[in-house]
Amino acid sequence: MQPVVAGDHNIDEDDGTEQKIALSKIIRHEDYGIYEMSNDISLLQFSKPLIFNEYVTPISLQSIKGYLGDCVVSGWGTAEGGQISSKLRYVEIPTMTDTQCGVSYGQDNVEESDICAGFPEGGKGACLDDAGGPLVCGGLLTGIMSFSWGCGLPDAPAVFTEVAYYKEWVEAHAQ
């Protein structure tokens, strides 16, 4: 299995802050649907614990379902010009209701277990290559990037797996 790297900011340089850890197990949701992108959540079990410091910190899970407010999404997704960014990037974007999100993707394609974020007018947002990355709201892990149409396009918010919806599943399988 591919190792996980925590504490990295620039994937093209070794800053000395990185922790490379082998995975011992991937726990995929038992009802994951690859075509529907339903139950799009997995847990990664490391072969040894991370060492928490100023570059690697734990995060608590969001408990509020349907959180509305400004959040931060981060990742190394596609930058201007279609290139993958070598530096970790982030942007603050607002979440929206499932009904608002359904206007873009169709009401039947936005599940209760999804949370969407982005500006209706576009301009900033998560990119497809940010999939698996965090949506952090009020210092809590609120979403895990699932999919989007492009990067910050008008009327095309990013769709995240809503962590609060899966909190009991995470806690049950994180032992």
TrEMBL record:
Q: Which domain of life is it from?
A: Eukaryota
Keywords recorded for this protein, A-Z: Disulfide bond, Hydrolase, Protease, Secreted, Serine protease
Kindly list the GO molecular function terms attached to this UniProt entry: serine-type endopeptidase activity
Name its GO BP terms in alphabetical order: proteolysis
> Where's it found, cell-wise?
Secreted
Q: What is this protein called?
A: Trypsin-1
Query: What's a GO cellular component annotated to this UniProt protein?
Result: extracellular space
Species the sequence originates in: Portunus trituberculatus (Swimming crab)
InterPro entries in the record, alphabetically? Answer: Peptidase_S1_PA (IPR009003), Peptidase_S1_PA_chymotrypsin (IPR043504), Peptidase_S1A (IPR001314), Serine_Proteases_S1 (IPR050127), Trypsin_dom (IPR001254)
SUPFAM superfamilies found in the cross-reference section: Trypsin-like serine proteases (SSF50494)
Peptidase S1 domain segment(s): 1-175
